[in-house]
Write a structure and sequence with these properties.
By secondary structure, this protein is an all-alpha fold. Helices cover 67% and strands 0% of the residues. The chain crosses the membrane at residues 41-63, 83-101, 121-138, 169-191, 203-222, 254-274, 304-324, 344-367, 379-402.
Length: 437
């Protein structure tokens, strides 16, 4: 009898586990990848742009300060004097900015101390609404820079209803807001319609519409019987009726009004519109590639018009809140207060995302509220705040520069499915006898 087969008697080695235990190197690699994804996002570029702009503003504050200029004359003999003067100038300026925008710790009462924050929220309200309107245009591939004209016509429409009609409380305010929304939407819709039907560039059209709106409103303000207050020679409207004024949220001692709540609601609505609705999906499709959208069955001309109508409606709410919330005693041709153009900066800084637009608007509202305190208490020119805002736009437009300065990782490009497929996943080619190699 033959000896038993050795393979039958030899114990079979246990198979190795299918998954190897995690190592510390794998955990570190996972954390490094997560940090790289976070720091390569668009919000880091926006934050870096703000930091660089503030630093540049600090240089300008120090360069224009008289004490710094005096101590610079003997810098090499006593450099500490100049460094101390620089710290005092820059620290005093941004401390005054904080007191004027967030909390005035030198105030006698809590109401006076917290009033700067409510002032910042008030300034932020039209920026949030107008920034959302511009952001919708950006997401749909439309560069809407006609915020000034859209705000002017919406303010005129809402103001005319506010002082010209006699309606019950509640209904009067609602009708005035609707008038502003409709006016802003129709004025923006002109640019969208021309773009969709004739291919006219929206930048040129909206610029021309800004001029038309400005001179049209100026004419109406200087003409009795239109917008000019009766018996007045000034280009100003009558005061708004009490039934058409947006109520204050925290009493008459604080300027923040119901428009801020409308702005917060608009942020949620626009987020849902862009990320959860079919209309927003079509906006994003034509914003990425209108030709691909046309192939996918999207009516590109109609979507362009709708996106401009929605964006103009949001800017119309901003114009209406300016009239019904702030300039309740009457307004002139400067009612837009530069919000139409600041909305472009806000949309860029917020990466055209609703939440990003919200925080960017709060930042710019704080700049506007605190800039006056910087000028009054520290003698800092208000133009420096405007320069800081402009530098934010400059750095936002140059993401590679911001990434290079802060050593941020570059965003990873998407790899197509064909290129991402490993070579081993492709089927083997058959040989002449039909067997796979």
């Amino acid at each position: 009898m033959s000896a038993p087969d050795s393979a039958a008697t030899t114990p079979v080695a246990k198979a190795a586990p299918a998954t190897a235990p995690r190592t510390d190197d794998g955990d570190d690699r996972r954390w490094r990848d997560a940090i790289a994804r976070v720091t390569s996002g668009g919000w880091t570029v926006a934050l870096g742009a703000v930091v660089l702009a503030v630093l540049a503003g600090s240089v300008m504050i120090a360069a224009t300060d008289p004490d710094v200029q005096d101590t610079s004359k003997y810098f090499f003999s006593r450099p500490g004097d100049m460094l101390q003067a620089i710290g005092s100038a820059v620290g005093g300026a941004y401390t005054a900015l904080f007191r004027g925008a967030i909390y005035n710790y030198n105030a006698d009462t809590f109401e006076q101390a917290i009033r700067p924050l409510t002032q910042s929220l008030t300034y932020s309200t039209p920026l949030i609404l107008a920034g959302l309107g511009v952001a919708i245009g950006f997401r749909s591939g439309m560069f809407n820079i006609g915020g000034q004209g859209q705000m002017l016509v919406s303010a005129a429409a809402a103001g005319w209803v506010g002082f010209g009609l006699d309606l019950p409380a509640g209904l009067h305010l609602l009708v005035a807001l609707i008038a502003g929304v409709v006016a802003g939407a129709l004025w923006a819709g002109i640019a969208g319609l021309l773009k969709a039907t004739t291919g006219a560039h929206e930048v040129i059209v909206t610029i021309m519409l800004n001029y038309i709106a400005f001179y049209l409103i100026s004419y109406m303000l200087a003409t009795p019987g239109l917008l000019q207050a009766p018996g007045s020679a000034n280009p100003k409207t009558p005061p708004m009726e009490a039934t058409a004024i947006l109520p204050r949220l925290f009493g008459k001692q604080f300027p923040v009004h119901l428009g801020f709540v409308l702005a917060l609601v608009a942020v949620g609505v626009v987020w849902w519109l862009l990320n959860r609705s079919s209309v927003g999906f079509r906006f994003r499709i034509i914003g990425e590639n209108p030709y691909a959208g046309r192939v996918a069955g999207v009516n590109v001309p109609r979507t362009i018009v709708v996106s401009m109508l929605v964006g103009g409606a949001l800017i119309g709410v901003a114009g209406a809140t300016q009239v019904l919330g702030l300039s309740t005693t009457g307004f002139g041709s400067s009612i837009d207060a530069g919000v139409g153009f600041d909305a472009i900066t806000v949309a860029l800084l917020g990466s055209s995302q609703p939440v990003g637009v919200l925080f960017a608007s709060l930042l710019f509202g704080a700049f506007k509220a605190g800039g006056t305190t910087m000028q009054a208490s520290e003698g800092i020119p208000i133009e420096i705040v405007l320069v800081v805002q402009s530098l934010i736009v400059l750095f936002i437009a140059a993401p590679p520069l911001v990434r290079a300065i802060f050593r941020l990782p570059q965003p990873k490009r998407r790899v197509s499915a064909r290129r991402a497929t490993p070579p081993a996943a492709t089927p083997a080619a058959p040989t002449a006898d039909g067997a796979a190699r």
